[in-house]
Amino acid sequence: DTGVSQNPRHKITKRGQNVTFRCDPISEHNRLYWYRQTLGQGPEFLTYFQNEAQLEKSRLLSDRFSAERPKGSFSTLEIQRTEQGDSAMYLCASSLTGGANEQFFGPGTRLTVL
Amino acid sequence: KQEVTQIPAALSVPEGENLVLNCSFTDSAIYNLQWFRQDPGKGLTSLLLIQSSQREQTSGRLNASLDKSSGRSTLYIAASQPGDSATYLCAVCSNTGKLIFGQGTTLQVKP
Hints:
The complex is a heterodimer of chains A (114) and B (111).
Chain A: E1 5-7, E2 10-13, E3 19-24, E4 31-37, E5 44-50, E6 53-57, E7 65-68, E8 75-79, E9 88-95, E10 104-105, E11 109-113
Parallel strand pairs in A: 2-11
Antiparallel strand pairs in A: 1-3, 3-8, 4-5, 4-9, 5-6, 7-8, 9-10, 9-11
Chain B: E1 4-7, E2 10-14, E3 19-25, E4 32-38, E5 44-51, E6 56-59, E7 62-67, E8 72-77, E9 86-93, E10 99-101, E11 105-110
Parallel strand pairs in B: 2-11
Antiparallel strand pairs in B: 1-3, 3-8, 4-5, 4-9, 6-7, 7-8, 9-10, 9-11
């Protein structure tokens, strides 16, 4: 399958622990996006990369959140000192630059902070 | 600040009905608009993308229209089926590429 993949699919953690999620985009896509979705809401933009450069970060992305895309391929999103309010679905999407710019989404990582 | 609103929040129809989902946005300076489908607990599936210069796009039983000047888009579903039951999300794309989503319309098609 050549779609966007995310791991793990589910993560349950205790408050105060650190968690890391991984996203593997479609191979030829140079843009990669992270979104967060809480129950009953539409996804909200967190950050995006063009190749390895992080070009924009939402103010939702507090200093406990960090995202990387070291070689312009896969990306990781780390949350330090998790809080119950971090419980959400974390979605990754990828696209080509310019043109139709259609974004293709992965299945998401469901985070539950106890 | 761009805001996207979807009406109605929920919709229940009998199988076979044609239906329209509405999306409105406050800033007409968009790059494109995408409609997505989301099944419970799953990721998003792209249905249709309309470029800012286009008026509509069609795929099978789905037709999406875009009126940038009035800040509106509609998703028309013909001959609805129980398998169409899902949440439908509208998202506008800024020139930086990020998507701004509405809250979605949850559709239930009853057999």
